[in-house]
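Form P-L/3: holo structure prediction, ligand uridine-5'-diphosphate-xylopyranose.
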Amino acid sequence: MRKICVIGTGYVGLVSGAGLADFGNSVICTDIDQSKIDMLNRGEMPIYEPGLKELVDRNVATGRLSFSADIDAAVQNTEVIFIAVGTPMGENGEADLRAVEAVASTIAKNMNAYKIVCTKSTVPVGTGARLEKLILQQRNSEVDFDVVSNPEFLREGSAVKDFLHPDRVILGVSSKRAELILAEVYRPLYINDTPMVITNIPSSEMIKYASNAFLAVKISFINEVANLADKVGADVHTIAKAMGLDGRISPKFLHPGPGFGGSCFPKDTEALVHTGEVNGVDFQVVKAAIAANKAQRKVILGKALELLPDMTGKIIAILGLAFKANTDDVRDAPALDIIEGLESLGAVVRAYDPIASTNMKKYFLPELDTRNSVSETVEGADMVIILTEWNELRGLSLPDLKKRMNSANIVDARNILSVDQLKEFGFNYRNVGRSTI
Ligand code: UDX
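OUTPUT (holo model):
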């Protein structure tokens, strides 16, 4: 059991902090946002993640998990400090490391004993070395410290499960002492044979970007295959299934749709391209995946125009605003571009999402006409466009939908509706790679 401080209580920080406490460590989660800390101390969750409240409550109750805005004291009273603050996309795709470096400075000023400074945030290759230099320059005492890279692979919507049961743990270390302490931090995973990849810091930093960028490439690839399938009368689900039967390909992440969004793939792909550029390596494949992803939003818009060539004054019901199901996160969601495109064509947009409407209006589209139910949203609509694969939407009653709509047009950008039923109930429809089967 180790004494841990996690700085940053976002998706990664809060889930990791609660998970590390669940592994038996003593964890203080800190944040500069006092209101978040206050919320957490009231037992309220600042983010929506299945299982998170239970995980937090369980560990607060045992006294292993606490929350504080006093970052200085938290650093002084702990040995392993995880940096889990945001690294948003800055100018020309470069990751903005200001928050990470500010945290490193805070740690440097509170070096009252040996510390391990562990980056869990996704940081470009070379950041570990930069942090080491920064701390050496700014530390308030000559005590020893080690910088470690420990990237996180949790997915929003399954973050708790992904943290507690990861496919692997990556540790980029530069000392045996740090390696042994981190192995102890992750001991429960260690003893149940979770693969541990122990490597140097640059390799660990690269593993995160290479993994995310590869997944993004896979998504853009299947989206392009789907776009061709629509033209030649093929079924992309059958293609993806058959591809996935090849063990080298795997069936995962071969679901076509409106393109990837979220707080990771869009920024991590750009950051990797930028890291390549500054090191004289041209990531042409990742650049192509980024371009294909941007284009996929237009592909969905094109499908809507195939059904309704003149959008002027037409009522379009958007079902799903979150960038994917089981999250309230709308960052870089396809809905942002698609709603903008529809409105620029003169359409009247209404939208529904089980939990993400508040965020969409708070952060991006304050004027968006959001409704509280599918029925309200589709009443009198000329078209429905499904953008998020919420289970609630998988069970849509097509006869009920048709009754409520002004005209029976559906663009199912997540392929969650039955093509046979769409035909049976007389819908004009488009989906992604199955429209003509
Ligand atoms: C991703 C990585 O999966 C995770 O390992 C990393 O830690 C953070 O970034 P996340 O962004 O939360 O996780 O969601 P993910 O489930 O990976 O989906 C990313 C985007 O790709 C979503 O917009 C999703 O809709 C889309 N997607 C995913 C597809 O379009 N098709 C797929 O087959 C899978």
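COMMENT: The chain is about 45% helix and 15% strand.
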